[in-house]
Amino acid sequence: MAVLIYAESSDGKFKKVAFELASYASEVAAATGTSVTAVTVNASDVSELYNYGVHKVLQVSDSRLNDFNAKAYADVVVQAAKQESASVVVLSSTTDSLYLAPLVTVHLQAGFASNVVALPASYAPFQVKRTAFSNKAFSITEISQDVKVLSIAKNSFGLKANSVSGSAEAFAPTLHDGDFSVKIESIEAGNGKVSIADADIVVSGGRGLKGPENWGMLEDLATTLGAATACSKPVSDLGWRPHSEHVGQTGKPVATNLYIAVGISGAIQHIAGINSSKVKVVINSDPEAPFFKVADYGVVGDAFEILPKLNEKLKAFKANN
């Protein structure tokens, strides 16, 4: 028996979510008296996983899997789960894993819970807390199947170091031609210094910035904070910023520790996609902007005056601390 995680990587390096899943799985394993196994695809140095409680790593090395393919990756996870007799399979809430989850669940004849935000409230019966209604509420979901598949909401658990003595072994799942019936023609990658998926802080801009030529001050603030840059849907639709930066219910949902919205009015679709962020700061010249109703902190004023001054203060703070 084991708790299995799929540890996502990019260009051979693990994403932050891999360590968050390992942290979560480690506590589940401790509570159920079992161990954590991770399955990786074309990852290089897997020893980092041992720092977060992973006892065993199944390393898949296959050039056909250089680009994500939901059917093929699902077969990898399913075969790993069966080999390890995994009773709990833990996935992330990234775009890739959202594709994976239903395929893995069906093949394992498992029960599935998405948007999980905490450790199981109970193991017998198995119950987990998850978000519902576009992150406006919580629900307790009970899974009665023998195998449970959990999709953990981003940034809901955090990283918890738990160094163990781990081991790695080669894993060669059986993959069929049908697994590759969908071909990847191209990949559009974001060119930001910090990716939205891995960011703890996101600085996001809307039409209030008046044009793409004014994005420099937003990027300067993001650089100071070590943050990712993002935008609202109208901004990406206008071509001011790439679609890879569009966040919201119809773009990339984010659950950051700090979300700073500049010149974004706060359409319901945008708020629904960022509502899981822990602290929301809104800067807008319109005091009636809907975003202020959900903000933890709000600043009414001209972003063209506020952002340079805020960035200057933050730089001074960093220099003195």
What do these coordinates show?
The protein is built from seven helices and 17 strands. The strands form four sheets. It has a seven-stranded parallel sheet. It has a five-stranded parallel sheet with strand order 14-13-15-16-17. Strand 9 and strand 10 form a beta hairpin. The longest helix is centred in the first third of the chain and has 17 residues. It starts with a strand and ends with a helix.
Strands, helices and their partners?
Blueprint: E1 2-6, E2 9-10, E3 13-14, H1 16-32, E4 35-41, E5 56-60, H2 70-83, E6 86-91, H3 95-108, E7 111-116, E8 122-123, E9 126-132, E10 137-143, E11 148-152, E12 167-170, E13 201-205, H4 216-225, E14 228-231, H5 233-237, E15 258-262, H6 268-274, E16 279-284, E17 297-300, H7 303-319
Parallel strand pairs: 1-4, 1-6, 4-5, 5-12, 6-11, 7-11, 13-14, 13-15, 15-16, 16-17
Antiparallel strand pairs: 2-3, 8-9, 9-10
Features of the shown structure:
321 residues; five-stranded parallel beta sheet; 7 helices; globular
**Largest sheet descriptor:** 7 strands, parallel
Q: Radius of gyration in whole Å, from Cα?
A: 21 Å
Q: How far apart lie the N and C ends?
A: 48 Å
Shape, principal axes of CA atoms: globular
Number of strands: 17
Structural class comes to alpha/beta
Can you summarize this structure?
The chain is an alpha/beta fold and 321 residues long. The protein is 26% helix and 26% strand. The strands form 4 sheets. It has a 7-stranded parallel sheet.
